[in-house]
Amino acid sequence: xxxxxxxxxxxxxxxxxxxxxxxxxxxxxxxxxxxxxxxxxxxxxxxxxxxxxxxxxxxxxxxxxxxxxxxxxxxxxxxxxxxxxxxxxxxxxxxxxxxxxxxxxxxxxxxxxxxxxxxxxxxxxxxxxxxxxxxxxxxxxxxxxxxxxxxxxxxxxxxxxxxxxxxxxxxxxxxxxxxxxxxxxxxxxxxxxxxxxxxxxxxxxxxxxxxxxxxxxxxxxxxxxxxxxxxxxxxxxxxxxxxxxxxxxxxxxxxxxxxxxxxxxxxxxxxxxxxxxxxxxxxxxxxxxxxxxxxxxxxxxxxx
Length: 304
Ligand code: NAP
Known about the structure:
By secondary structure, the chain is an alpha/beta fold. It has helices at 11-22, 56-69, 131-134, 150-160, 179-185, 282-303; strands at residues 2-7, 27-31, 73-76, 79-84, 89-93, 96-105, 110-111, 127-128, 142-146, 165-169, 191-194, 197-204, 209-216, 222-226, 229-232, 236-237, 268-270.
């Protein structure tokens, strides 16, 4: 029986592990993929206080080492569901069962996939949701990035250095990205920005992507861009259906929770992108991790 089991080894989960270990609690972190979460795919983190210009993978790796050096156990397994039991919670995983007194859900959110015709057929064959993972396959080729947030602008800048051309399309003329990122992208001579355009269809030869059909939402005019790669950067969505028996979810699937990281079930805490919140950033994920661990420690003390 662990004092605290943390589902997810991203910035929220690993920060929770650091704080829980410093509070003297035994900690198991379960991560289905690689530790670090979405930040691993960020070429450069620019907005974490006192750590400018750090590559995402380095940030993740340092965070993991810090948690491990404090004695957190980090294991590779997917958390499939959890339920309340007599002494706390039983957590069912891809490799068995674990028991804990307090349960912190810090499983983040997964990149959204394009939902136009052809997008699933060509996923992995020209359609990608990760420019830093797959960009190298498109060296010297023409590509499109879909989205108007910081990820889209970061991805487009990353691809611009590799690809022959990059077209960023966004469904609105306004961008969610920081104006600095927008201005920076405009300095690339091989980048075009097209708004307001939505995806209509990913076209291909049966093997790979050859073109992308888009439509102007104001004029309804359609265009076909000849491209080899289509990169979706349209945000992320939570994956919490498996916890719907345990905690309240909002209509979008986020765990209902405030800044205190408490959920509808005492002993279960939600940290990072997985919970209802206004600002999903590295720094707010880390903040949640600290809060959730602190609340878990108080919960365990009160239950003794
Ligand atoms: P985001 O900010 O939610 O932006 C998603 C973009 O995709 C928006 O432009 C949205 O349009 C568009 N979109 C959503 N669904 C779509 C669909 N079905 N079809 C077409 N377009 C669609 O997501 P993000 O860029 O991944 O960023 C997530 C969070 O991480 C943000 O808080 C961001 O600031 C942060 N982040 C920070 C950095 C950095 O600071 N270095 C880097 C990356 C991400 P609408 O605006 O119309 O909804």
